[in-house]
Amino acid sequence: VVDPDDAADLMRKAGLEPLEAYPGAVVPWRCRCTRCSQEVRPRYNAIQQGQGGCGNCSGRFSPIAPSIVYLMCHEDYRALKVGIGNIDNNRVDYHERMGWKLLRWIDTDSGTEARDLERQVLAAWRNAGLEPAVDAEDMPWGGHTETVPDSPAARQLAFAVLH
């Protein structure tokens, strides 16, 4: 059992100010990053395990840096994947080493713009009833929720957003 006051103290040590009462260890917890003032929703258990609480400040993805949106396919999984990254990361290279092939690459002025495009592709896929095509254990580095079964219709939906 986690004491709510102890949980809030841990979040503060991680640079996060809770905006609501402790919701539980695995429930997204509304907080404000004390570095960039962005509202974020980390899980207590993730912070407890040493993960960064703010994607903007964790060094993984910056919403203000020049970024990319990419669309990839994987023949063995028969899947498409949309993703984002800052220009200076090696996410596409890593996916290619794992068997993914690049179909489309879009440069954006900011991570926020890239994230918006990624969300539009995902919304188009989900609105069409397409669910993730790759299991989490097949992509232990993450990103399985941004996949769908590869089909001409799924490609067309993605290409319509990433024109």
Task: Lay out the secondary structure.
Elements: H1 4-13, E1 16-18, E2 31-33, E3 39-40, H2 44-48, E4 67-74, E5 79-86, H3 91-97, E6 101-108, H4 111-127, E7 147-149, H5 152-161
Antiparallel strand pairs: 1-2, 2-3, 4-5, 4-6, 5-7
Helix pairs in contact: 4-5
Shape: elongated
Oligomer: single chain
Give average pLDDT, whole number: 90
Please tally the β strands and state the result: 7
Structural class: alpha+beta
The biggest beta sheet reads: 4 strands, antiparallel
Strand order of the largest sheet: 6-4-5-7
Radius of gyration over all CA atoms, rounded? 18 Å
The helix-strand sequence is HEEEHEEHEHEH
Compute the separation of the termini in Å: 50 Å
Strand content: 15-25%
| Stretches with pLDDT under 50, minimum 5 residues | none
Fraction in helix:
25-40%
